[in-house]
Write a structure and sequence with these properties.
Blueprint (H helix, E strand, L loop, with lengths): L14 E10 L2 E11 L4 E5 L6 H8 L7 E6 L2 E2 L4 H7 E4 L11 H11 L4 H14 L15 H13 L5 E5 L7 H16 L3 E6 L2 H7 L2 E6 L2 E7 H5 L5 H9 L18
Parallel strand pairs: 3-8, 3-9, 6-7, 7-8
Antiparallel strand pairs: 1-2, 1-4, 4-5, 9-10
Bound molecules: adenosine-5'-triphosphate.
The site of adenosine-5'-triphosphate has 12 residues, from β2 and α1.
Main location: membrane
Membrane topology: Peripheral membrane protein
Keywords: Antibiotic resistance, ATP-binding, Nucleotide-binding, Transport
């Protein structure tokens, strides 16, 4: 059942992308993406380095204006009504910039108030999130003194505070230890179980395979495949192998890098 309690018919897509393009000078970063992302699932956006994942997510979440194309989230056009859309989404961007001189707790209070929550609600939700994400003991430390994993977790808490319908995460597990990764995973699984949608980008196929029910493969700024995990994997034994086949594996000639290694010094 969706979050709105509607049990009839296929749910409207969480995100609808039509004809999305972005160029940086000569470089085409996103080359005409059309995609409907289903609601209420764990969605993986995967692709090699430079595929266009961050650029796509930035345009979808209203952080970067597309050259052309449209994005709708829950039926609202992101670039026509960015404020309405931003109230309904949570974002953990790549290279997260935060207010470094606030403590973790202060950061959540600030973000919650900015989102229009009452002081009591912010306090209650922040306490719970800090607790679940194992940050309670470091809540009064300044964010500048947080480790990479702690930064991801406080960023995730800030993105979840207003209970968004769709959560976008750019490489949420990068630089995160297995214990913190498991904590993040548990929180996200609970969140999607209630009908919310998580869209996250990654190039770690094992992670995507174990977490996501639906994936889109991006390479060279285009969608190469999309659908349920089983559809995208096809006959390949793993998503990793399906992915390598889809994006094309570049082989290295035998005599290149012949200077590298111990034997010829
Ligand atoms: N601000 C920018 N100016 C110029 N080129 C850019 C800019 N942002 C991205 N690009 C280029 O657009 C292409 C797509 O980059 P993008 O960061 O979206 O890829 P990605 O799939 O997120 O890669 P990664 O997995 O390495 O983070 C790359 O060729 C990149 O060099």
């Amino acid at each position: 059942m969706g979050r709105d309690g509607n049990t009839e018919g296929p749910a409207a897509p969480a995100v609808r992308i039509e004809g999305l393009w972005k160029r940086f000078g000569e470089q085409v970063a996103v080359a005409g993406i059309d995609l409907e992302i289903p609601a209420g699932q764990f969605i993986g956006l995967v692709g090699p380095n430079g595929a266009g994942k961050t650029t796509t997510l930035s345009m979808v979440t209203g952080l970067l204006r597309p050259d052309s194309g449209r994005v709708e989230i829950g039926g609202t056009d992101v670039w026509q009504d960015p404020a309405a859309v931003k109230a309904r989404i949570g974002v953990l961007p790549e290279g997260l910039r935060m207010f470094e001189r606030l403590s973790g707790r202060e950061l959540l209070t600030y973000m919650g108030r900015l989102r229009g929550l009452s002081g009591d609600d912010v306090d209650r939700r922040a306490t719970q999130l800090l607790d679940v994400l194992d940050l309670a003991t470091s809540q009064h430390k300044l964010v500048i003194d947080y480790s990479t994993g702690m930064r991801k977790k406080i960023g995730l808490a800030a993105a979840l505070l207003h209970n968004p319908e769709v959560l976008f995460l750019d490489e949420p597990f990068e630089g995160v230890d297995p214990v913190s990764a498991q904590t993040i995973r548990t929180v996200l699984e609970r969140y999607t179980a209630s009908g919310a949608t998580v869209v996250f980008s990654s190039h770690v196929m094992e992670l995507v395979e174990s977490l996501c029910s639906w994936v889109a493969v991006l390479a060279g700024g285009r969608i190469r495949a999309h659908g349920t995990l089983a559809e995208v994997r096809g006959d390949a034994p793993t998503l990793q192998e399906a992915f390598l086949e889809l994006v094309g594996v570049r082989t290295t000639a035998d005599d290149s890098l012949d200077w590298l290694g111990g034997g010829v010094r």
